[in-house]
Amino acid sequence: MITVQNLTKKYNSSIVLNLEQLEIPKGQSFGLVGNNGAGKTTFFSLLLDLIQPTSGSIENNGILVSESETWKTFTSSFIDESFLISYLTPEEYFYFIGELRGCNKADIDALLANFKDFFHDEILGQKKYLRDLSKGNQKKAGIVASFIGNPEVVILDEPFANLDPTTQIRLKAIIKDLASKKGVTVLVSSHDLIHVTEVCERIVVLNKGEIVKDIRTSAETLRELEVFFGSSILPKEEKRSTEEE
Amino acid sequence: MFKRFASLQWKAFFRSSSLGKSLAIKIIMIFFGIYMLACLVLMGVGLFFILEKTFPGVDPMLKVSSYFLYWILGELVFRYFMQKLPVIDIKPFLILPIKKDAIVHYILGRSAFSFFNFLALFLFVPFGIVLLIKGYPALNVLVWLFAIACISQFINFLNFIINKSDKVLLGLLLVLITFYAVDYFQLYPIQELFGNIFYQLYANPIWAIIPLALAILTYAVNYRFLRNKIYLDSAVKEKIKEAETADLGWTERFGSIAPFLQLDLKLIWRNKRTKTQVFMSFIVLLYGLFFYTQDSYGSTSAMFAFAGIFITGIFMVNFGQFIPAWDSAYYNMLMAQNIPMRKYLASKAGLIYVSIVVMFLLSIPYIYFGWEIVVINFTCALYNLGINVPVVLFFGSKNKKRIDLHKSALGNMQGASATQFLIIIPLMVVPCILYFVLKYFISFEVAIAILGLLGLVGIILRNTVLDKIATIYSAKKYEMIAGFGEKD
Questions:
Q1: In A, which residues are within 8 Å of B243 by CB distance?
Q2: Is A9 in contact with A17 (CB distance < 8 Å)?
Q3: ipTM for this model
Q4: CA-to-CA distance for B111 and B116, rounded, in angstroms?
Q5: Res B216: pLDDT
Q6: Under a CB-based contact definition with an 8 Å cutoff, are residues A202 and A3 in contact?
Q7: Which residues of A touch B (CB under 8 A)?
Q8: What pLDDT sits at residue A152?
Q9: Which residues contact residue B224 at a Cβ distance below 8 angstroms, ignoring those fewer than 6 apart?
Q10: Min distance A177 CA to chain B CA atoms (Å)
Q11: pLDDT at B205 over 70
């Protein structure tokens, strides 16, 4: 589904991302881990054509993302709160995204009904604008908005950060479901090794912009990752931080 | 403790992002500020002589005193909109080992030095100096100035008390209007009555104790109120307004641009800065009175062409020049979504078209000043529709500065750059010169016909032009994303 070839991104002379080759097949749940500054968000931004690559290319379903815009019809994403429109209520936001992705109100209402548990009665019907919701609830709204319009590729940057435990567990179930039952390619980045190992079939570790590990998830994966992050790169106390700024 | 608070305040001011703005804007803002203050000072100096000349035989001091009531009421209304006690600033101090008393004194004490408290002094101190030169007794004048400083503080603290309710504002306005009406229709000489009372501040300096007492009293009331409520869930809390949703179903008839149109309407209505601009547009409508009442212009002056472009295009200028920066906070999302740039721009253009037509319709009553004015305004509206809308949208593609929507509108220069000043030339100056030259060398009719024709050509070609502009926006996408992402 997604093919990356010799992709690099430089700011001035420092290389922030350098991926020689990466192939993500359709329906895979793909996890990206790495410390701050490893290049996770840069990769996602390149994938969404929000920044220009210094060299190389990304193909999404055979479409060069920097050339054509047709990939947008089947790709959706939630990167950070800059994806939310602060002065809309959550409902209005969902309907607006729906309009952009060719869903009418009824479609959206049907979709939202599936996420009743996930919202925990704190999103819909609150008479609040998105800007007045808590960070966690904003995130929930953004994540659900990325499921609108039956996308084939869903990109979520740090979806577990700021969420309460119940919601984290529900989100994991939702993501697994998307990949296994609906054949959606899900790309997730996270600082939390436990979450990614539970959710993703495949985990790629980025360090300083380069792929240092590419693992098919198994029972030993978590241990392997913990050893890797605990020893090689940075002091121990950083390895489980869940916030990224 | 206060020293430390003061040093924090100092840093807050000098490290604030507004000081890091581009040099040109800073200089313009400073000039504007100096200009305003200079006007006040000049007025203060001239006030004595003006009053002496307009009301011969009346002590200017008494005359000034008679306006005090309106000054106080007027300033209260003005401050109601402009000034709020920034309680939220003290949030970080709550968990530090600082006495709550000290925190409350700090925030109230800080407000005593707010800019608003010095406005009156800039007017009255020069006035006082003139009084001294004119041989008024020094003690009385100096104490009188002190009393004025106290009244300013009183207004300051009273404002924080009444700021909590809209009803008080209505009451204030009602009192202001009633007093004025009672005076105007000579039912009762209120102005004179209060004039005599306020004159006592000067005549008997001992009365200055009353403003002082009032200032202290209002301070104490504020203090007691805040001291008991300095908790995260009461005073130190940002007010959350309940979302008001309106059914914008009627926009569906505009077809595929409807979702964007709805978004823009909500953008305008739910954010302070944009909302103020709508109100400003209606106020600008009154600007015509200023032009049309000048007999020296004649009936078809080029100034009227300027007024026409300005009045029918005010919303276009105010709102249009910051496209697409209004959407800067979520521009990433728009660009990652399946959005045709063309429709996005068409919606913005549509909104501006509507504003131009509405402003023209509202300006029709100016026919009272001559039919030529309506003809000029109609032509200017056509020109705005056909030529200026694409020009504004084109210049919008140069916008790379973020706008935070929740910040207030008045004097807010966020998102402004040199473009915003340059844009005036093609928008306003070019059509005025064109009109002037054509009218001067040929005739009024030809000038009108050519301007209108240009507008019509623009309207006919609008789709082609919009396509071109959309390509420019697409080409500038990465620059815009990067620029809008930078928080200042």
A1: 89, 126-129, 132
A2: yes
A3: 0.83
A4: 9
A5: 94
A6: no
A7: 48-52, 69, 72-73, 75-77, 79, 82-89, 92, 96-97, 99-101, 126-129, 131-132
A8: 93
A9: none
A10: 24
A11: yes
B267 interaction partners in chain A (CB closer than 8 Å): 87
Calpha distance B328→B335 (Å, rounded): 11
Q: At what angle do helices B302-320 and B371-383 cross, to 10 degrees?
A: 40
Minimal Cα–Cα distance from B156 to chain A, Å?
30
The alpha-carbon gap from B5 to the nearest alpha carbon of chain A, in Å, equals 29
pLDDT of residue B383: 94
Is the Cβ–Cβ distance between A65 and A56 less than 8 Å? no
Nearest to A77 among B241, B267, B336 (CB): B336
- Per the CB < 8 A criterion, the answer to whether B297 and B303 are in contact is yes
Question: What are the extents of the domains in chain A?
Answer: 2-74+152-244
Q: Tokens at residue B369, please?
A: 């000043």
Show the tokens assigned to B427. 């928008």
Rounded to a whole number, what is the distance in Å from the CA of A75 to chain B's nearest CA?
Answer: 8
The model scores a pTM over 0.80? no
Contact B406 A86 (CB under 8 A): yes
Contacts of A86 in chain B (CB under 8 A): 329-330, 405-406
Mean pLDDT for all residues in chain A: 88
**Beta strands A202-207 and A210-216: pairing type?**
antiparallel
User: Under an 8 A CB cutoff, do B331 and A82 touch?
Assistant: yes
Mutate to test the interface with B, among A99, A100, A103, A157 (most CBs of B within 10 A): A100
Q: What are the tens digits of pLDDT across the range B350-392?
A: 999 999 999 999 999 988 888 888 999 999 999 999 999 999 9
Q: Which residues in chain A have Cβ-Cβ distances shorter than 8 Å to B333?
A: 82-85
Domain boundaries, chain B: 2-236, 249-484
**Beta-strand relationship, A75-78 and A14-24:** unpaired
Tell me the percentage of chain B whose pLDDT exceeds 70.
91
Q: Report the 10 Å Cβ neighbour count for A243.
A: 9
DSSP string, B201-258: HHHSGGGGHHHHHHHHHHHHHHHHHHHHT-STTTTSS---PPP-----GGGGGGGGGH
Rg (CA), chain B: 27
Determine whether the interchain pair B336/A48 forms a contact, defined as Cβ–Cβ distance below 8 Å: yes
Choose the closest CB to B339 out of A92, A100, A128. A100
Closest partner CB to B332 (pick from A52, A82, A126): A82
The amino acid sitting at B166 is: D
Closest CA to A92 of B147, B203, B322, B263: B263
Give the separation between CA B183 and CA A229, rounded to whole angstroms: 81
| pLDDT at B420 (0 to 100) | 67
Per-residue pLDDT tens digits for B13-29: 666 655 555 566 667 77
Q: How many CB atoms sit inside 10 A of residue B27's CB? A: 10
Cβ within 8 Å, pair B335-A50: yes
B144-149: list long-range contacts, CB under 8 Å, 24+ apart: B144/B201, B144/B202, B144/B205, B144/B208, B145/B121, B146/B208, B146/B212, B147/B201, B147/B207, B147/B208, B147/B211, B147/B212, B148/B120, B148/B121, B148/B124, B148/B211, B149/B117, B149/B121
Alpha helices by DSSP H, listed for B229-369, are 258-270, 272-285, 287-292, 302-320, 331-336, 341-363
Mutation for testing the B interface, residue in A50, A70, A147, A156 having most B CBs under 10 Å: A50
The CATH class of the A2-74+152-244 domain is alpha beta
pLDDT score at A173: 92
Instruction: Name every chain A residue with its beta carbon within 8 A of the beta carbon of B487.
Output: none
